[in-house]
Amino acid sequence: MALSGWFALSLQLALGVRAGLAHGVPWPDTVLNYFSYFTIMTNLLLALGLSVPLLAPASRWGRFFQQPEIRSASLVYITIVAVVYALLLQQLWHPTGLRLFADMLLHRAIPAGYLFYWLWFVPSGRLRWWGALQWLMFPGVYLLYTLLRGALIDTYPYPFLNVLRLGYSGVLFNALLLACAFLVMSALIIAYDRHLKTLQRRPLRRDY
Questions:
Q1: pTM tops 0.90, yes or no
Q2: I need a labelling partner for 55 at 20 to 30 A (CA). Which of 62, 128, 150, 162 fits?
Q3: Which ranges constitute the DSSP H helices of the chain?
């Protein structure tokens, strides 16, 4: 999972830089724009969260990324990435070749793979309901960064966050809907985790 994440991120960046240079866009601008997408930031979080515990499990960051709360929050983020892309963004562009391959890795294969990873390898019974609110911090910081960056350069990564077209009221309304989606997804994951905890506590039934 870690290798596939780093590979997909590197491939997407390399293809973006090459396409930008072909259209006269300096590579630093392409790199900055690359890191403005929630898809990229979420896949980067997953790649780091899978790599650091393998390379330095006893380090501060290794212990941080091993927490079930952090891995569960990552599952929420990457699931929202997959759902939003499938419902709102997929029809906006039609990549081919290696770009299509990178696109499928970032938006489909890695989200599906991380779900199976969470189901099989993340300890259950550790999540609390208030975690759903805490997990809003990452997308909240991203939204703030997007609005500040857009105010400076008049560029927004997603149409539903485009202040130039929707105004701040429209963008904030969309942000509220997305926050609700994050909360619902978080609640579903926490509820499933607590259900597993209940099953583990239930005594085995013996029929004689």
A1: yes
A2: 128
A3: 2-22, 27-34, 38-55, 60-66, 68-84, 97-104, 110-121, 131-134, 137-153, 163-201
